[in-house]
Design brief:
This protein is of the alpha+beta class. It has helices at residues 11-33, 37-48, and strands spanning 54-59, 66-73, 90-92, 108-113, 119-130, 141-150, 157-167, 173-181.
């Protein structure tokens, strides 16, 4: 009989059966694991997407050792900036002080919001200072403010406004932009303006 030697030993057939079963079990395990690989990829992508319903960023030249502060205010709330890093709606991620205590030369600050309550939003920049030893020497600092919002239905982030601002002296506070959000969490068309509205000075009064 095939698979049985002259002594009646059928171990060769048993060995092949065991190998076949093991291979089949391995293939079944891989088949069961495949559907779980894709969600992990989605999780990784979500982890690198910026959080928040609104993302407000400011960048200024990396080679300039200048301390520029981002201040934002949601409707009927205290302004959020370096001395008040968290509110009900906004949080300041980092107070960038130029090159001081910074492992990189990236000059960047960002605030994220949780939700978008209806009302007026204000975004200001404050020229806090230059590098130690430069004192109050006047040196213009160009900065770019970007406002992005996240769609509540798709989760996609889209840029809404980009404003270029030049800060001309230490201590100066400039209103980069103001805009309105409606009850649906959408930007009101035509609401963008640049009328000055101090935030840093008013923060202590809330």
């Amino acid at each position: 009989m095939l698979g049985v030697d002259e002594y009646g030993d059928d171990t060769g057939t048993v060995f092949r059966d065991v190998i076949t079963l093991a291979l089949g079990g391995f293939c079944a395990a891989v088949f069961l694991l495949v559907p779980h690989i894709h969600p992990r990829a989605e999780l990784t992508k979500a982890a690198i997407d910026p959080p928040g319903s609104a993302i407000i960023e400011v960048r200024w030249p990396d080679e300039m050792d200048a301390d520029i502060d981002l201040w934002v205010r949601a409707p009927e709330e205290a302004p959020v900036g370096y001395s008040n890093k968290g509110g009900r709606t906004f949080n300041l991620l980092r107070d960038d002080r130029g090159h001081y205590d910074d492992p990189t030369e990236l000059n960047y600050e960002v605030s994220f919001s949780r939700g978008l309550p209806a009302g007026e939003y204000v975004v200001n920049l404050h020229f806090y200072g230059l590098a130690l030893g430069l004192g109050s020497k006047v040196e213009q600092v160009p900065a770019t403010v970007v406002v992005s919002t996240r769609s509540s239905s798709t989760g996609a982030v889209s840029r809404q406004f980009t404003e270029n601002v030049t800060l001309e002296r230490v201590g100066e506070e400039v209103t980069a932009l103001r805009f309105q959000i409606d009850d649906n969490g959408e930007i009101v068309k035509g609401s963008l303006n640049h009328l000055p509205k101090p935030l840093r000075e008013s923060e202590s009064r809330w």
